[in-house]
Amino acid sequence: MLQTDKIVFFDLDGTLLGEDKEILASTKEAIRTLQQKGIYTAIATGRTPNSFDWIRRETNIDTFVSINGQYVVFEGEELLSSSLPGGMLREISELTLENGHGLAYCNHQGITVNQPDHPLIWDGFKAWKASYPAIDPHYHTHSAVHQLGLFCSNEEKRMYADQFPDYSFIQWHTTAWDVLPRNASKAAGIAKVLEKMGLETENAYAFGDGLNDIEMFKYVGTAVAMGNAADEVKQAADIVTSSNSDDGILNGLIRLGLL
């Protein structure tokens, strides 16, 4: 294990990835330089691990907090794998099918959805530049589920939030929400990594742009919001850098004095 006293966590969409869902050359070089200086680098994302294998290869990052803290891996070692309870999964699965709403089942192996060719599911995955997922409305009955994705209007989402008060509904697209336990977050996953490394929170840095990054920002020692982040996210950060497509990672690391 690399001996270091600092670690930087990077969100992916809207942060490490540009608007074209590619990694800027300046970002790759900045991460390489951090690693050469002995500063540990990690990913903190809402995505499932299989969707960012290529990013880990291109950045040489082996540690990640994925599925919003529900599945955490440190250099190949699984530190945390949290699944949603069967009763809740059964209830929300029945409700979404009755209401014609899209539902995605997410775990460390990937994403499966409850119905074919749903327009709102398509909208969400096109924003990722991803293909339509596998379809199995009964997936939750035979496989672990770490997080759900709900696809419906904002008004319709309120009905689910009222029905499941112990769960957070975090918007990541116009008509798409991550659904996970209220005590789950990227921050909880980061805590597992810091514990494994023996590092204090003051030595942890995080870059992000989304609403699911706010808990992480509150937890780490120094938080950096991308220039393209929502105002609420910027207000939770210590520093605001340039946008994800305008060398935001490089410029933020320079402002932090890490480069």
Automatic annotation (TrEMBL):
Name of the featured protein: Cof subfamily protein (Haloacid dehalogenase superfamily)/HAD superfamily hydrolase (TIGR01484 family)
Pfam families linked: Hydrolase_3
GO MF: magnesium ion binding; phosphatase activity
Gene3D superfamilies for the chain: 3.30.1240.10, HAD superfamily/HAD-like
GO cellular component: cytosol
